[in-house]
Amino acid sequence: MKIRKTLLHDKEIKVYVYENKKEETFVVAVPTQEWSFSFTYENSGEGFVNQLSSSLMNTGLEEQPAEELARRIYQWTCEM
Q1: CA distances, 68 to each of 19, 26, 29, 56 (Å)
Q2: Closest listed residue to residue 12, CA positions, set 75, 72, 77
Q3: Is the pLDDT of residue 22 over 90?
Q4: What is the DSSP code (8-state) at residue 54?
Q5: What's the number of domains the chain is made of?
Q6: Residue 55 pLDDT level (bands cut at 50, 70, 90)
């Protein structure tokens, strides 16, 4: 599991990224937003950022911060 730090609303938050290579899945969690998301390698395309962003907006995030966080998550999972 990787723990990444990023800024959200001028506060540093932790984003937990777990990769299960055997099952080819990721689980991402942001405890401060009470949010988590699970997806497979197949689902992690560029259009996938919109799904992450929409899910994050359901936690009360505004569109701009949700999109930025979704792009960071996408980038981190691509690096793993």
Answers
A1: 21, 19, 15, 10
A2: 72
A3: yes
A4: H
A5: 1
A6: very high
Specify the DSSP class assigned to residue 45: S
- Burial-class residue 64 by CB neighbours within 10 Å (0-12, 13-18, 19+): exposed
Task: Work out the average pLDDT over 26-47.
Answer: 89
pTM score above 0.70: yes
CA 58 to centroid of chain Cα atoms? 13
Q: Which domain holds residue 49?
A: 2-79
pLDDT digits (tens, 9 = 90+) for 37-54: 999 988 766 688 999 999
Per-residue CA distances from 20 to 1, 26, 54 (Å) = 9, 6, 24
Strand partners, 12: 7
Give the DSSP letter of residue 74. Answer: H
Which H/E stretch holds residue 21? none
